[in-house]
Amino acid sequence: MAVYTDVAPAELEAFLSGYDIGSLTSFHGIAEGVENSNFLVQTTTGSFILTLYEKRVKREDLPFFVGLMQHLAARGLSCPEPVAARSGAILAEVAGRPAAMVTFLPGVSVRRPTAHHCAELGRGLAQLHLAGADFALKRTNALSVTGWRPLFEAAGAAADTVAPGLSEAVAAELAVLEANWPQDLPSGVIHADLFPDNAFFLDDQLSGIIDFYFACTDFLAYDVAICLNAWCFEADGAYNVTKGRALLAGYEAVRPLSEAEKAALPRLARGAALRFLLTRLVDWLNVPEGALVRPKDPLEYLKKLRFHQAVERAQDYGLAA
Ligand SMILES: Nc1ncnc2c1ncn2[C@@H]1O[C@H](COP(=O)(O)OP(=O)(O)O)[C@@H](O)[C@H]1O
Ligand SMILES: N[C@@H](CCOP(=O)(O)O)C(=O)O
């Protein structure tokens, strides 16, 4: 879960009185997620998600996130749509936190994606990239290569309490990636956190994508690398090349990768693994007292990183030759 900030029923009712979405029938905190506080709000007219933005979300980035969801929805991508208050405002304040209401998307996320889900996801990711191509706002990726060292420093010596030698392993990888991060790949809007919990399916078809709060402007192929990490490894840490092939073929059916993007894939996959290893490590070491949250295992990403370090050719991910 994540509910870091509680909302009192009376406060929610007062907040909802500023919207034309009926009156409150029920609400509860949502158990999934780790970043923000989310509530399922049911009213006499339907279901909505109220998100209170927590530590990693900067107020100045909120127009990018809500603008992006509006933009993608207008281009036919199935994603949450921000709901405006009667005043026209989309951004609000609830329980002292910046907040917004979005539409509820039907569908379920899959715990164990199959190759079929990976293919669907690949197509959906490429559609997102195409739909985002003419989005006017830009947001630098704070969690790309220049953001990793500050995270490493925030974890500090405590990294070795999670696994002996972790600090040294991360320091070595960081040095390699800082010196060899790809340049000049095609860029645009990326989701940057399209994990299985952020993709919904109905009848095994991708029915929606949620959680745009890491979205930013970065290499499109970096988003592909994030998805290979998040969708194509088995619970025992093994890379499933059948899933990788399906994800990449699904993606390329909509947006073919350039030769430069293909060549960069192993490096991008290492970077993506290090990024999630680092954010998970910092979160693991800093669970706020009283928060209802299950921090995610940083070492899952150390294993994935080890796999990528041994990859010699992009074809090893299942790319068509
Ligand atoms: N628009 C939505 N429609 C339906 N469910 C949603 C929606 N937004 C969030 N959720 C639910 O809330 C959970 C947490 O949302 P998420 O945006 O992933 O949170 P976090 O940013 O904290 O990780 C999701 O796994 C999903 O169950
Ligand atoms: N996907 C990230 C954590 C962010 O959580 P989400 O619930 O927003 O996907 C990870 O797995 O480390």
TrEMBL record:
Q: Which residues form the Aminoglycoside phosphotransferase domain?
A: 28-257
Asked if Nucleotide-binding is a keyword of the record, the answer is yes
User: GO MF terms on file?
Assistant: homoserine kinase activity
Record pathway: Amino-acid biosynthesis; L-threonine biosynthesis; L-threonine from L-aspartate: step 4/5
- State the reactions this protein catalyses: L-homoserine + ATP = O-phospho-L-homoserine + ADP + H(+)
Matching entries from Pfam families are given as:
APH (PF01636)
Q: In terms of domain of life, where is this protein from? A: Bacteria
Gene3D superfamilies xrefs: 3.90.1200.10, Phosphorylase Kinase, domain 1
| Keywords (A to Z) from UniProt | Amino-acid biosynthesis, ATP-binding, Kinase, Nucleotide-binding, Threonine biosynthesis, Transferase
Q: Does the keyword ATP-binding apply?
A: yes
Q: What is its EC number?
A: 2.7.1.39
* HAMAP family according to UniProt: Homoser_kinase_2
Which NCBIfam families would you find in this protein's record? PRK05231.1, thrB_alt
Q: Which family does it belong to?
A: Belongs to the pseudomonas-type ThrB family.
- What is this protein's record name? Homoserine kinase
**What is the source species?**
Xanthobacter aminoxidans
